[in-house]
Amino acid sequence: RAIRTLTRTRLEAWEYRRWLQRREGRYRPFWTPTFTRDVELAQPFGASETPLHIVNIDYSNLLYGNPQFRHLAFFRTNGTVLYRKITAAAVTDTDEIISLDASLGFDGNMGSFEMISFMALNRLAADRLEIAWEDPDILNSEIGLMGIDDES
Prior knowledge:
- Helix content is 12%, strand content 39%.
- The chain starts with a strand and ends in a 5-residue tail after the last strand.
- Strand 4 and strand 5 form a beta hairpin.
- Strands 1, 2, 3, 4, 5, 6, 7, 8 and 9 form a 9-stranded antiparallel sheet that branches.
- The chain has helices at residues 10-23, 59-62; strands spanning 2-6, 30-33, 51-54, 71-76, 81-91, 96-100, 113-124, 131-133, 139-147.
């Protein structure tokens, strides 16, 4: 997996370089959402509920065993992002149920979110990378990522 970055201002370029320096090459891992609609809710949920009914994507059989698919980023329509770990998964006749490590803290449904994405723990694939400066404000780079099991 790779991340491609293109900055448009001098401040964006500086912030990106500072972020790269904080990674210390391959040393410091970081969480990366897929930024896609990976999961959709099948039923509304309550503020204190930890099990969520999701549209069947065969998560229990295909993805639950892979530690790269055990965390979710809930991008709310109000701009906040909630992060949760999936602790269990099961299939029902009509959908799937995933259990979260903590409730989301509000009553909601799929309309409460812009997207729900899987989130993986990664580190940089190399200690060195190339940055192409297209002009003093614009940089272009691509970094490779390596997935890490967060439980090891």
